[in-house]
Design brief:
Shape: globular
Radius of gyration: 17 Å
Structural class: alpha+beta
Distance between the termini: 20 Å
Largest sheet: 8 strands, antiparallel
Strand content: over 45%
Length: 157
């Protein structure tokens, strides 16, 4: 990381940023160019191991690419605000971001409900009860994160 002064190394601080984000972009191998898709996600932390959960239709480009190469990268960000410096006649953005890599697997049928509960927990603090009927038509993906980095540009100097 070029800007070591913005790097976040504390694991709990990184998880706190991830908890505040509402979209996770994953990048998959699509030959000459990466394929990037923004997704809703669920976050599960077990010790210092991070798992990300995503839901999907039963078919499509994302699933085709994962079947060929299940390695993926991800990025998420939050805390955006424009910082204006009138005296310098310049501006920049405040932000917090997390990037990482991992492997993606399809969650087995018997674990889908639990995985979707993790996803719902990310967006709804209470235990959200949902209709399990559409679960059969839903593909649930799990990324086992192998490494992550984070950085922050504070809104105050």
């Amino acid at each position: 990381m070029r800007r070591k002064d913005r790097e976040i190394t504390d694991f709990q601080d990184i998880v706190s940023i991830m908890e505040k984000c509402d979209v996770c972009r994953i990048a998959l191998n699509d030959g000459d160019f990466p394929y990037i898709v923004p997704l809703n996600f669920g976050l599960d932390v077990q010790g210092e191991q991070v798992f990300l959960y995503f839901h999907s239709a039963g078919a499509g480009k994302k699933l085709d690419l994962i079947a060929k190469d299940n390695r993926g990268a991800f990025e998420m960000d939050c805390d955006h605000s424009l910082l204006l410096f009138d005296e310098k006649m310049s501006c920049t953005m405040a932000f917090a971001s997390v990037m990482g890599r991992g492997t993606i697997t399809i969650v087995p049928e018997e674990e889908k409900y639990s995985a979707l509960k993790i996803l719902m927990r990310h967006y709804h603090a209470e235990d959200f009860q949902f209709d399990p009927t559409p679960i059969k038509a839903t593909t649930v993906l799990k990324m086992t994160v192998s490494d992550l980095t984070a950085k922050r540009r504070n809104s105050k100097p």
